[in-house]
Amino acid sequence: MSMIEFHDVEKYYGDFHALKDINLTIDKGEVVVIIGPSGSGKSTLLRSMNGLNTISSGKLIVNNFDLADKKTDINKIRREVGMVFQHFNLYANKTVLQNVSLAPQLVLKEDKAQSEKEAMELLKLVGLEDKAQSYPSMLSGGQEQRVAIARSLAMKPQALLFDEPTSALDPEMIGDVLDVMKKVAADDGMTMIVVTHEMGFAKEVADRLVFMADGEILEDDDTKSFFAHP
Ligand code: ADP
Ligand code: ADP
What we know:
Blueprint lengths: L1 E12 L2 E12 L3 E5 L6 H7 L8 E6 L2 E2 L7 H7 E4 L11 H11 L5 H14 L15 H14 L4 E5 L7 H16 L4 E5 L3 H7 L2 E6 L2 E7 H6 L2
Parallel strand pairs: 3-8, 3-9, 6-7, 7-8
Antiparallel strand pairs: 1-2, 1-4, 4-5, 9-10
Helix pairs in contact: 3-4, 3-5, 4-5, 5-6
One adenosine-5'-diphosphate (ADP) binds next to loops.
């Protein structure tokens, strides 16, 4: 079963051709890492998957919804396809527990006790249950990013997109965040698409690697074959 399908997708920013003839299918449960030089279109590709960027032409199907169809509810897609950014965008005036439990209350209409119980379980998963009552400003960047991942998971997404989740972090924080991402990837049902320069993570965790350059997909290969190249 496919989660995301690009068919002949093009993207222009004005005259600038940012995505060129993209054909890509990602199955449910797959972990795909997207690599390539800066400016090659990785972020544009990723952000189109939950409608943060529109495509110029072609067809894009996400969880069986056609993103070009005006009848598609983009908010529903964004609930089903979560995103973790380079900068974590936590609510500064909310506790960690509130950061993780508020959207399920407001959007999924979960009651407070249930959402907080689930949030505590997720904080345990990311190793931060002792920070539940802290505010984001009291956390390190790596801890903030782990909260951001817990917050995305709290929405029970079908897929999670990660846009360079470790590139704003101090080196000593990166390992903990990658460990959490490995745990998320270990959930067989979770589709994960990760833009990253962390080749160790790619080699260890990805099912597939997609290599972009200059707006094109130059390679799309299972991880083993990718690293077997001379
Ligand atoms: P990457 O993630 O691989 O660094 P991006 O997808 O961010 O690449 O950007 C690809 C190219 O598109 C870059 O040249 C960038 O400057 C350009 N670009 C990205 N967003 C916009 C935008 N909103 N308007 C115009 N050009 C953009
Ligand atoms: P990133 O850290 O993902 O590479 P950028 O610094 O490339 O982010 O882009 C930050 C924001 O500016 C994004 O929303 C992107 O779409 C937009 N952007 C990037 N390049 C351009 C550009 N050449 N013209 C206009 N907007 C751009």
